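Milestone 3.1: sequence recovery, worked example.
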């Protein structure tokens, strides 16, 4: 029996892709909409943010893009790039609005961490925006250490950085 979007557990496949893969376009398009809705022109605008890094940085041997598919629909994903020689930076972690609150972002994080280890990284660095409290909660629940004062106003901080030691995870 196939899982429906309202069920907590969804059968899915995670695979590696490139940014120009047609299956990556739903993730990128939805991220652009979400960033625009949440931030408008803050941080230089959505287009600047989405084009900040060349596509090659998300490809082997130092990067990766992972997509999570359910019944051929891209429902979640994330990417990693080299931040330093031993640290991967996670970017573009996203879950389709109709499939949120089902553990898919945690599945993407786990897959990204596994991929980072395979690529030889021992640490992770990532940031989220001040208007994404659900992302902050996810990172705190999954062992990421905030590199900012959790009691401070997130709007005053801007990008909220987190780190994680992969060897400890």
């Amino acid at each position: 029996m196939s899982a429906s979007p309202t069920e907590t557990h969804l059968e899915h496949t995670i695979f590696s892709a490139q940014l120009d893969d047609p299956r990556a376009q739903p993730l990128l398009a939805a991220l652009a909409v979400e960033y625009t809705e949440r931030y408008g022109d803050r941080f230089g605008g959505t287009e600047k943010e989405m084009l900040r890094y060349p596509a090659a940085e998300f490809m082997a041997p130092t990067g990766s893009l992972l997509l999570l598919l359910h019944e051929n629909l891209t429902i979640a994903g994330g990417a990693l790039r080299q931040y330093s020689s031993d640290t991967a930076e996670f970017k573009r972690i996203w879950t389709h609005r109709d499939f949120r609150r089902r553990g898919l972002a945690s599945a993407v994080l786990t897959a990204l961490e596994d991929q980072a280890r395979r690529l030889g990284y021992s640490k992770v660095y990532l940031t989220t925006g001040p208007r994404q409290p659900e992302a902050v909660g996810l990172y705190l629940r999954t062992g990421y250490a905030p590199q900012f004062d959790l009691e401070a106003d997130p709007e005053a901080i801007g990008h909220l950085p987190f780190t994680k030691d992969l060897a400890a995870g």
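The domain at 13-165 is CATH 3.40.630.30 (Aminopeptidase). Confidence is low (pLDDT under 50) at residues 1-8.
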